[in-house]
Amino acid sequence: MNAASHSVIDPVELTRDLIRIPSVTPADEGAMDVLERALTGLGFACRRMVFEGPSGVGHDARIENLYARRGTASPNLCFAGHTDVVPIGDLKAWSAGPFEGETRDGVLYGRGAVDMKGGIAAWVAAVSRVLARDEIEGSLSFLITGDEEGPALHGTKRVVQTLAAEGEVIDACVVGEPSSAHHLGDMIKVGRRGSLNTWITVFGKQGHVAYPDRAANPTPVIARLLARLDAHVLDEGYPEFPPSNLEITTIDVGNPASNIIPAEAKARLNIRFNPTHTGDGLIDWLNREAGALQAETGLRIELEHMCSGEAFLTEPGVFVSAVQDAVEAVLGRRPEASTTGGTSDARFIRSLCPVLELGLVGQTMHQVDERVPEAELRALTDAYERVITTVLERLQP
Ligand SMILES: [Zn+2]
Fold it and tell me: pLDDT 10s digit of each residue in the chain, 397 long?
């Protein structure tokens, strides 16, 4: 396909078009159609991937996803993002319509402006400019989901599983989450801590406090278990990550009587862990500790675990420095490589390829009056354009 056979896309107009679609998770409302039209016009082969199943919040969900690729050569540089947005909260508290895309004093208002319809539009616009100039050496792709802000069961995770099973090769991926802290381009995210929740129940035998030999009190047992877990040093941390941390978040016995030994004691804890650990490794450790105490005391201890994301780190290297160099060349500041913050879909993509997050300033994300200065959208487009050409150049086989 010839370069320049299409028009250059304006990032502000595309952001506005996307904001005007109320795609609150899990609803799509045509958001993916808008994107597919733009990408088809740029010569991408678009493939819709619809996944259905339990939503995790009580009903079934039907989720739109899109994988689009232009070219077959290596390297394949992917952009990942989500078209779904969080609910608007209190409509009366908004000074502009959350789905109108109004610009006031050069600032574009609307749900998804920074998280992350603006980021998607900026990358699409950057791609249109790159392609208008010259044919690329390599491939560009998009992995877009409609299920990031929700339970994320039928989004990026399943697209990644499908692509991996098919042998699709992606060499590097930029996720367009609003990674910047205070100024555009001041921060990229190169990793995240993992998160594990564990629910603990110790089963005793109820009885009268005056006749302890006829009862079995679970409270001292859960206290001993929690004290052991809390005293354990998981690791010392390393340059990119603080030490892994276990927090006991609640202890519940719920016993209203002063003369009863309770039958059950419950507790919950959360572990935020660095890549020294895996969710399964931590679960094994917790189960061993509980098993040992159960053997000592004869009281049954049950644990339930839910790992909502593994820890990962994209090591410094050609990809990370190519992105840092490109951002610095365009925006005049070198982004700090950080591992702070919550989880994102990067946790699924890291099984395919090196991944990092680069996007707008996240200050108003998930808030009332979410907004982005139009100048910042254009500046991000400039930075993305340089990122695309620099990464493709440096990852040439
Ligand atoms: Zn987001």
Answer: 444 567 899 999 999 999 999 999 999 999 999 999 999 999 999 999 999 987 766 678 899 999 999 999 999 999 999 999 999 999 999 999 999 999 999 999 999 999 999 999 999 999 999 999 988 999 999 999 999 988 788 999 999 999 999 999 999 999 999 999 999 999 999 998 999 999 999 999 999 999 999 999 999 999 999 999 999 999 999 888 889 999 999 999 999 999 999 999 999 999 999 999 999 999 999 999 999 999 999 999 999 999 988 899 999 999 999 999 999 999 999 999 999 877 788 989 998 999 999 999 999 999 999 999 999 999 999 999 999 999 999 999 8
Dist. CA 143 → ligand 1 center (Å): 14
Note if 345 is an active site residue. no
Residue of 17, 36, 147, 148 marked catalytic: 148
Q: How far is the CA of 43 from the centre of ligand 1 (A)?
A: 26
> How far does the centroid of ligand 1 lie from the alpha carbon of residue 361, in Å?
12
**Nearest CA among 118, 149, 111 for reference residue 368:** 111
Contacting residues for 155 by C-beta, under 8 A, at least 6 apart: 51, 63, 65, 82, 145, 146, 147, 148, 345
Q: Which helix (H) or strand (E) holds 295?
A: helix 279-297
Cα–Cα distance list, 132 to 125, 248, 357 (Å) = 11, 55, 25
Is 75 in contact with 69 (CB distance < 8 Å)?
no
How far, in Å, CA of 138 to CA of 393, rounded?
A: 9
84 catalytic per annotation: yes
Characterize 285-309 residue by residue with b for buried, 16 or more Cβ atoms within 10 angstroms of its Cβ, and e for exposed. ebeebbeebbeebebebebeeebeb
Strand 172-175 with 355-357, pairing: parallel
Of 17, 36, 84, 385, catalytic: 84
